[in-house]
Specification:
Low-confidence stretches: none
Distance between the termini: 54 Å
Helix content: 40-55%
Mean pLDDT: 94
CATH superfamily of the largest domain: Glutamyl-tRNA Synthetase, Domain 3
Number of helices: 20
Number of domains: 4
Shape: elongated
Oligomer: single chain
Largest sheet: 4 strands, antiparallel
CATH topology of the largest domain: Glutamyl-tRNA Synthetase, domain 3
Structural class: alpha+beta
CATH architecture of the largest domain: Alpha-Beta Complex
């Protein structure tokens, strides 16, 4: 959900300002690569009605804006790997980065030494002079290691005693002292791929990105990114940044997670997701949510239009959205509110549309129904439903006779004298005169009518008896009540 909301806010901002929304696949971290994730992302955005002006589609084809601008292909960072090394070495040549040859074991030893002294190891200006890198080793040794080793990296050389001054479109002015920052890895010789920091800065510059809207978890990286733009001399083309608030769990504090959804019974993925290990996670699409409802609820998680309006189409969101009205604090997710959104969108659909969605569900249940009949049923029950699949639970007995009866209702309303009165009323009246017959003959209205409904639908609660009889017919109603009598013995 968080990733889709970030994409949505980027899309809304771009469209509102006449810009292009770019989908770039950031797949340079081989350790975190997940097969099928790219296709999943593209399908999820399509389901939400979010289509990139530039990027890739599920088939791997380049998507290009119809404007005169040329696309900045390729859009997968793994396919752009050939361009990043030159920028990493440019930073080394300009004195803003250096080669680091420390092995994983050596870095672990450095961490252990720091912990023994009650400190936390940070690779920075205080420690880099004691480690194996191009700042401490002879030039000849550096040259030899670059040629012979394949496990070296390029690290950014964080300036000493600097206050990095930054501006965020949501959080305002931010200042961070470089003493709190480490020398991040920018490029790795092992796989010849950049880290997120270098790849994003280079690609944002080359793709002429003007605004970057991303999650709050990237806020600690903002000082490094500012300094990278400075090191490259790209300050004039540096994009503006906005860091969105976290999506919080429904109860208590903390970031919303799949575990929260599993525990409380709601999905956190837009579509059903099956991990490489075979673990399946529920999706909003498969749970029956309309994509418009999902997009609407996501938009309201962190953004407030400043009015009482809550229902927005995608086009209306484009017009109304503003980063000025995105909050700084986390947005607590409310699963009941999510259902409310879907209920509102269900009620806005025409009876004909809803019937068309309900017909395949009926077919799965083995019911072949006339579309006009189904449309009439939908018109009657849609105010009671949250999802289209609820229609079956609400009104299945309008299509098939009940074969089971709720036992507690049988115990309460299936007593011999009550059933005898119910059968008499049904045999000696019509749908229009049923209640009058019960009243005029002094029968207990509540008990008798609930017994009749029990026979018609299998439960004492549900649709009005007159509505049930209107759909199934009086003769079928009488047949069902007699069937209940045979069950009562």
């Amino acid at each position: 959900m968080g990733g889709v909301r970030t994409a949505l806010y980027n899309y809304l901002y771009a469209k509102q300002h006449g810009g292009d929304f770019i989908l770039r696949i950031e797949d340079t971290d081989s350790n975190r690569f997940v097969p099928g994730a790219e296709e999943y992302i593209i399908e999820a955005l399509r389901w939400c009605g979010i289509y990139p002006d530039e990027g890739v589609d599920a088939a791997g084809n380049v998507v290009c804006s119809p404007s005169e601008r040329h696309p900045h292909a390729p859009y997968r960072q793994s396919q752009r790997r050939g361009i990043y090394r030159q920028y990493a070495e440019q930073l080394v040549d300009s004195g803003h980065a250096y080669y680091a040859f420390d092995t994983a074991a050596e870095l672990e030893e450095a961490r252990a030494r720091a912990e023994a002294q009650g400190q936390t190891f940070i690779y920075n200006h205080l420690t880099r002079g004691d480690l194996r890198n191009s700042l401490t080793l002879p030039r000849a040794e550096v040259k030899r290691l670059l040629a012979e080793r394949t496990d070296w990296t390029v690290r950014f050389m964080m300036p000493e005693d600097r206050v990095v001054q930054m501006d965020d479109l949501i959080r305002g002015h931010i200042e961070v002292h470089t003493a709190t920052l480490d020398d991040k890895v920018l490029w790795k010789r092992a796989d010849e791929l950049p880290t997120y920091h270098l790849a994003n800065i280079v690609d944002d510059h080359l793709m002429e990105i003007t605004e970057v809207i991303r999650g709050e978890e990237w806020l600690p990286s903002l000082p490094l990114h500012y300094l990278l733009y400075e090191a490259f001399g790209w300050q004039d083309s540096q994009p503006r940044f906005a860091h969105l608030p976290l999506l919080l769990k429904p109860v208590g504090n903390g970031k919303l997670s799949k575990r929260d959804g599993d525990k409380l019974g709601f999905p956190v993925f837009p579509l059903r997701w099956t991990s490489p290990t075979g673990e399946t996670s529920r999706g909003y699409r498969e749970d029956g949510y309309f994509p418009e409802a999902f997009v609407n609820l996501l938009a309201m998680l962190g953004w407030n239009p400043g009015t009482e309006q809550e229902i927005f189409s995608l086009d209306e969101l484009v017009q109304a959205f503003s980063l000025d009205k995105v909050g700084k604090s986390g947005a607590k997710f409310n699963p009941d509110k999510a259902k409310w959104f879907n209920r509102e969108y269900l009620r806005m659909r025409s009876d004909k549309e809803l019937a068309a969605l309900f017909l395949p569900i009926l077919k799965e249940k083995g019911v072949e129904a006339d579309p006009a009949f189904v449309q009439d049923v939908v018109a009657l029950i849609k105010e009671r439903a949250t999802f289209v699949q609820d229609f079956w639970d609400i009104a299945h007995y309008l299509f098939v006779a009940p074969t089971e009866f709720v036992q507690k209702d049988v115990d309460k309303f299936g007593k011999p004298e009550t059933y005898a009165a119910a059968l008499e009323a049904m045999e000696h009246s019509t749908a229009d005169t049923l209640e009058n017959y019960v009243r005029e003959h002094g029968m207990p209205m509540g008990k008798v009518m609930n017994c009749i409904r029990l026979g018609l639908s299998g439960a004492a609660s549900g649709l009005a008896i007159a509505d049930i009889l209107r759909f199934i017919g009086y003769d079928e109603g009488l047949r069902r009540l007699r069937c209940l009598g045979s069950r009562l013995g």
